[in-house]
Amino acid sequence: MAIPTVMGTEIEFGIIVKNDPDFDPISSCVLLVNAYREDPEGRILWDYDQENPLADARGFQVDGEKYTPNQQENIARNKTLINGARYYVDHAHPEYSSPEVTNARDLVAHEKAGERILEVSRREANLLLPEGALMLLHKNNSDRKGNSYGCHENYLMDRRTSFKRIVENLLPFFVTRQIYCGAGKVGSENRSHPCDFQISQRADFFETEVALDTMVKRPIINTRDEPHADREKYRRLHMIVGDSNMSEYTIYLRNGVTALILSMIEDGAIDRDLALSNPVRSIKEVSHDSNLKKEILLDNGKRMTAVQIQSEFLEMALTYAARNPIDPCTQDVLEKWQHVMTCLREDPMDLAREIDWVAKKQLLEGFIERKGADWEDSRVQMLDLQYHDTRPDKGLYYMLERQGRVERICSDEEINAAAHNPPDDTRAFFRGECLRRYPGEVFGVNWDSISFAQGEDPVRRIMMSEPLKGSRVHVEELLNRSESATELLENLES
């Protein structure tokens, strides 16, 4: 039986400061992250000792040096939040990593909470900029200068599941799931074939099937073997193939369907041969075909459209759900997936309320028709970018939301709560509550550990190698009777 679902996302945002001739993305990111003043002291370290980004899931260690910043740089670049998330500077981008969650609905709430947290810090950062300068953030995947930045999905998996089997089953799934997960994009990049509009923002940037790197020769399947959990039991599947989505409905499907497919892989329930002849070429072909008519070549010589391949996965999922108990959230994901696939077969444009790329395409086609413009018009490219603007009063997605033209998954109240509270049912609850209750005593944090400083005594680290332990049920009573971190450590030992 597949292990319980645990997942999260890491979103890299685009950043620019208008009217600043000396704009430096890294210093701007540092300013942005530190403008979010949830912890006035701001002295908690991110524990890099617990990380190993050079381990490869295929069973070897890649040559290279692990970068660890000094203490001052560490504090300047990292914030661990009381909702269990991490907010930090990743290369030249601000990045928000959600806390671990157990279902797609909570994932939507915590990912959207990240947008609100970044907007709060953007406003605060703008107060510190020179007069006339304006910081802008975009939840997108390309700067149109050849640089792409990611939406990374993370899923807990049983280490006993063959990585080879994972790769074989996920390649055709990931190549084709963009038909309901894509964020939409005007034009092409990275030397790809020209097009007016395509389904995915990321597809043009994938150049190999399987590899460890995330920035050069990007792979469809990333092989990082850094479980942030008990290595003997778990792997963390680190997926870099997805777009950064604005639509709650699209995020819900992106993570909910993928989690279901991974459970099916663990249980051996993928029983059809859908291997593609050339996945790298096919991911671009699917993206460039917004009419969804392009047939792609399979290894067995057959040709199928992306809709047909996804329909095969849906049929297998329905069979799996009929034979295995699934939770209400997964059942809802399955029903919404069915609805979306029906519309994609009949008329994709019927999904303007649900799916990002369709909503964007409808907006842009309306503008082109009203203004007598074309896809090469710079105003069209500007509107494409504005769809991803994180300012609630300026972003085109938020405009659609205000007008009631998109389907919601979570209420504003749920999203606001997620910005300040960790999920109840994972170790993120313990992490977030320790930060809330004992901020002056927390020394360092990682996904699978938290350490405390107690005067002259050595730093004490608590390991959290089980992602489903440390939940409210497990630790709330312990926390309530621990007035300090010292008492917490004593109570843990008693």
Strand order in the sheet with the most strands:
6-7-8-1-10-15
Radius of gyration from the alpha-carbon trace, in angstroms: 22 Å
- Overall tally of structural domains: 1
Overall pLDDT, averaged? 94
Secondary structure: number of strands = 20
User: What's the CATH architecture?
Assistant: 2-Layer Sandwich
Oligomer: single chain
Short overview:
With 494 residues, the chain is an alpha+beta fold. The chain is 39% helix and 17% strand.
What report would you give on this structure?
With 494 residues, this protein is α+β, with helices and mostly antiparallel strands. The chain has one domain: Creatine Kinase, Chain A, domain 2 (2-Layer Sandwich). It has 15 helices and 20 strands. Strands 6-7-8-1-10-15 form a 6-stranded antiparallel β-sheet. A hairpin with a 5-residue loop joins strand 16 and strand 17 (303-305). Helix 3 (104-126) packs across helix 5, helix 4 (163-181) runs antiparallel to helix 5 (248-266) and helix 4 (163-181) runs parallel beside helix 6. The model has no long low-confidence stretch (mean pLDDT 94).
Keywords:
single chain, 494 residues, alpha+beta, Creatine Kinase, Chain A, domain 2, 6-stranded antiparallel sheet, 4-stranded mixed sheet, 20 strands, 17% strand, globular
Topology:
Elements: E1 7-12, E2 14-18, H1 25-34, E3 45-46, E4 55-56, E5 60-61, H2 71-77, E6 78-80, E7 86-90, E8 93-97, H3 104-126, E9 134-138, E10 151-158, H4 163-181, E11 185-186, E12 197-198, E13 208-211, E14 219-222, E15 234-242, H5 248-266, H6 279-287, E16 295-297, E17 303-305, H7 306-323, H8 328-346, H9 356-371, H10 378-386, H11 396-402, H12 412-420, H13 428-437, E18 442-446, E19 449-452, E20 460-463, H14 472-480, H15 485-493
Helix pairs in contact: 1-3, 3-5, 3-12, 4-5, 4-6, 4-7, 5-8, 7-8, 13-14
